[in-house]
Amino acid sequence: MSGVGELVAHGRSADVHALTADRVLKVYRDDWPIEAIDREVEDATAAFDLGLTPIRCHGRTDAGGRRAAAFDRIEGVALTTVAEKNPLRMRRVARSLAREHARIHRVATDRFPDVRDVAADLVGSAPFGALTARERSALLDHLASLPGGDSVLHLDFHPMNVFRHGGGIATIDWQSTACGDPAADVAMTRLLFTEAELFPGASRAQLLVYGAARGAMGRMYLSEYLSVTGMTTARLDRWATAARVLRLGMLDIPSERDRLLSGIRSVIAR
Description:
Elements: E1 7-10, E2 14-18, E3 23-28, H1 34-49, E4 57-63, E5 66-72, H2 79-85, H3 90-105, H4 115-122, H5 133-144, E6 151-153, E7 162-165, E8 168-171, E9 178-180, H6 182-194, H7 204-229, H8 233-237, H9 240-251, H10 254-268
Antiparallel strand pairs: 1-2, 2-3, 3-5, 4-5, 6-9, 7-8
Helix pairs in contact: 3-7, 4-5, 4-9, 6-7, 6-9, 9-10
């Protein structure tokens, strides 16, 4: 692509290219909504302002006729890569992941939408078209019954979005940020470790290593998070259905759709 450097990373919504020695360019898919791009720029800016990440967003720009946004360049590797290079470090990686997540949840704000409202709005979207009117009503009642909160929630928190950087940790991809009960965010991360499709653009080696190890890492992460915060499994389980709603409504990945809908139906049927 003209005007951008080498490919740094590949994701579902965008590719990341080198721009300068200290910046990268996130170039979005042509079909990615401009509203979603503007929200990511706004939320990434808020995350930096709140001290949630050391990575600054430098605003929306153009890349050879395609929409893009510029960000600080990360000087380090994702925690997934750290574990891949030395599986003996998996427990340490899981501990770092949990402690970073707990640190984020200690930040309170009203700059992001309530996660319960986000989930409820998604129930009216196309991925939920297979639900009957009665099922949608029961699902909305369930979501409305969930507890509130004012903690920052990342909602896509996993070891490929958390990096070693500058002697510390940097969390990226603040494109689905909300606020509310931290258990909602932990339930989303647990789902990513157990039910979600593996990450796009991963190498064959990454798929093999992470596919075999993610369950173990997920259990280590969860054990550490619960230990550090005192959160109970019962509180976390209460958000499992909302996590499936968020995952399905935000991404609607074909390979996940039936499984997520089945999980949602099994709860609202009770």
